[in-house]
Design a protein that fits this description.
Strand content: under 5%
InterPro entries: INTS3 (IPR045334), INTS3_N (IPR019333)
Radius of gyration: 22 Å
Low-confidence stretches: 1-5
GO cellular component, one term: cytoplasm
Number of strands: 0
Order of helices and strands: HHHHHHHHHHHHHHHHHHH
Distance between the termini: 51 Å
Shape: globular
Mean pLDDT: 91
Structural class: mainly alpha
Protein name: SOSS complex subunit A homolog
Organism: Oppiella nova
Number of helices: 19
Length: 320
C-alpha cells in the first residue's frame, strides 16, 4: 500500500517559509494526489489497470495521470521503474505531453528542485534516450541551458559532468540530431575555459576528448555554428587536441569535410542567436529581457549591479 504522506510536492520543490505554491505547483500537487488515490491499496497489476482505464476517459484525465506519474517518479526513486513503465503504457501521444511537463520543470522550476528530484529528472532523461523517445533532444537542450557559465560550484559541476557522461554514453543517439551535436560542442567548448582548477582536471580532459572527437568526426554538424566557432576554438587553441584542429582548419580543411573551405567559410556564417541563447539560463534570459524592455534608460544601474553580483562575480565568470 502507498503511504499518502510518502509523496508530497514539498519533496519535489524547495519552498522557503514565505513561499506560496503557484498555479503550476498547485496543479502538480493535485495530480500527484489524484494518482495516489487511484493506486493506493491496489496491487501493481490493479494499479496499472486503474491508471490505464482512467487515462483513456478524456484528455484532461490523460494529462492528470501523466503529471501525477511524472511527479511520483521525481519524488520516489524506489518506485520509479514501475511508474515509468506505467507512464509508457498510459501515454497516448508518444510521450509528447510528458515531455512538455518535463521541459516546463527543466526550464522554469529546475532551480527549485530538490537534489534528489534533479537526480530523478536525469534518470528519466536516460530512460527516454534508451528508447529514443521523439523530442528528448529538447529536454537535453533545456538541461544544458541550466549549466551556468563561469560557475564551478558543486551543483553546477555535477550537472555539467552528469550530462557529459550521458552524451558520451549515448553518442550514437546524439549523432542522429545535428543541431544537438552543434549545441553540445558550442556548450562544452565554452565551458572548458572555466575548468582550469586543479580539482577539475579529469572533467576538463573528458570535455576536451569529447569535443575534439565530435569536431573531428561530425564537423559538418558544427559548421552552422559559424563565426563564433572560430572564437571558441581560438580560446582553446593552446590545448594540444584543439591546436591540431586549429592548424587543420587553416592548412587542411578538407580533412573535416570534402567541400569545406576552412576558416574563411566559417567567418561568412553568422552565428544564430539560438546558440547565444543556449548559454543563458532561462532565469538569466528573463532578467535580461526585463532589464532591456521594462527598465527606463538612466535607471538601469542598480539592476545591472544586481545582475553583476548574481552572475558575474567570480573569477571564472569573467569569461562570460
Amino acid at each position: 500500500m502507498m503511504d499518502a504522506n510518502k509523496h508530497s510536492i514539498h519533496k519535489l520543490f524547495l519552498f522557503s517559509p514565505i513561499d506560496a505554491k503557484d498555479d503550476i505547483e498547485e496543479k502538480y500537487e493535485r495530480c500527484l494526489l489524484f494518482v495516489q488515490n487511484l493506486i493506493n491499496g491496489k496491487s501493481e497489476k490493479e494499479g496499472h489497470e486503474e491508471l490505464t482505464s482512467t487515462a483513456i476517459k478524456s484528455t484532461t484525465s490523460h494529462e492528470d495521470v501523466c503529471i501525477g506519474l511524472v511527479v511520483t517518479i521525481l519524488t520516489d526513486s524506489s518506485s520509479a521503474q514501475r511508474h515509468y513503465r506505467d507512464l509508457t503504457y498510459v501515454t497516448r501521444d508518444g510521450m509528447t505531453y510528458v515531455l512538455n511537463v518535463l521541459n516546463q520543470i527543466a526550464c522554469d522550476k529546475y532551480h527549485k528542485l530538490h537534489d534528489s528530484s534533479r537526480n530523478q529528472l536525469i534518470w528519466i532523461l536516460k530512460e527516454m534516450i534508451k528508447t529514443s523517445v521523439t523530442g528528448t533532444d529538447g529536454l537535453v537542450m533545456n538541461l544544458l541551458r541550466q549549466i551556468i557559465g563561469g560557475d564551478i560550484s558543486p551543483k553546477n559541476v555535477w550537472l555539467i559532468e552528469t550530462l557529459l557522461d550521458i552524451l558520451v554514453e549515448s553518442r550514437q543517439w546524439l549523432e542522429q540530431i545535428s543541431f544537438l551535436v552543434a549545441s553540445v560542442v558550442y556548450t562544452y567548448l565554452r565551458l572548458i575555459g572555466d575548468h582550469s582548477n586543479s580539482l577539475l582536471v579529469k572533467l576538463k580532459q573528458k570535455e576536451v576528448d569529447f569535443c575534439s572527437s565530435l569536431l573531428r568526426e561530425r564537423f559538418a554538424d558544427c559548421i552552422p555554428i559559424g563565426r563564433d566557432l572560430v572564437r571558441l576554438l581560438q580560446n582553446v587553441a593552446r590545448i594540444p587536441e584543439f591546436e591540431k584542429i586549429w592548424r587543420d582548419l587553416f592548412s587542411n580543411p578538407t580533412v573535416f569535410a570534402p567541400n569545406f573551405g576552412g576558416i574563411h567559410q566559417l567567418m561568412k556564417i553568422r552565428t544564430s542567436r539560438r546558440f547565444f541563447q543556449s548559454r543563458l539560463t532561462p532565469d538569466m534570459e528573463r532578467k535580461i529581457v526585463f532589464l532591456t524592455s521594462q527598465v527606463k534608460f538612466g535607471q538601469q544601474k542598480r539592476y545591472q549591479d544586481w545582475f553583476q553580483r548574481q552572475y558575474l562575480s567570480t573569477p571564472e565568470s569573467q569569461t562570460l
